[in-house]
């Protein structure tokens, strides 16, 4: 998936078992979709909490935050409840969406690469952020991408 590409529509269950569909959410503005390797781990917790803590900043640019991993609905629910996330966590248990975005790893304990995608309201990928070690970079750079596009 490269900047300028149309993002294929997809749907997955969120942490509450509700169906979440990209095309339906884009009606409300841009979507910042961040892939993380595993819920309840130190790095993923830091990254997801940073997205949570920047709620007002994302709201100011009209963007929606959405986390996604290969964890199941129950794990996503536990992760969200424990840290008070105010955005959906999607359960991509089969790795279908991770494959679409090119972040699925073929082997290893870390099943997906930590990568963030900024999707414009028109469904076009306007930016992406990748860093396995800098957990704050994803939210910070996604915000910068959105601000430049205003």
Key features of this structure:
150 residues; alpha/beta; 7 strands
Provide an overview of this structure:
With 150 residues, this protein is of the alpha/beta class. Helices cover 35% and strands 21% of the residues. The protein has 6 helices and 7 strands, in the order ββαβααβαβαββα. Strands 2-1-5-4-3-6-7 form a 7-stranded mixed beta sheet.
Q: Helices and strands in order, then pairings?
A:
Layout: E1 11-14, E2 19-21, H1 22-26, E3 31-35, H2 42-53, H3 55-60, E4 64-69, H4 73-83, E5 89-91, H5 96-101, E6 115-119, E7 125-130, H6 137-148
Element pattern in H and E: EEHEHHEHEHEEH
Share of helical residues: 25-40%
Q: Helical region count?
A: 6
Rg for CA atoms:
14 Å
Distance between the termini: 22 Å
Average pLDDT for all residues: 90
Residue stretches low in confidence (pLDDT < 50, at least 5 long) are none
Identify the overall geometry.
globular
Q: How is the largest sheet built, in terms of strand order? A: 2-1-5-4-3-6-7
Q: What percent of residues are in strands?
A: 15-25%
* Structural class based on helices, strands and sheet pairing: alpha/beta
> How can the largest sheet be summarized?
7 strands, mixed
> How many strand elements?
7
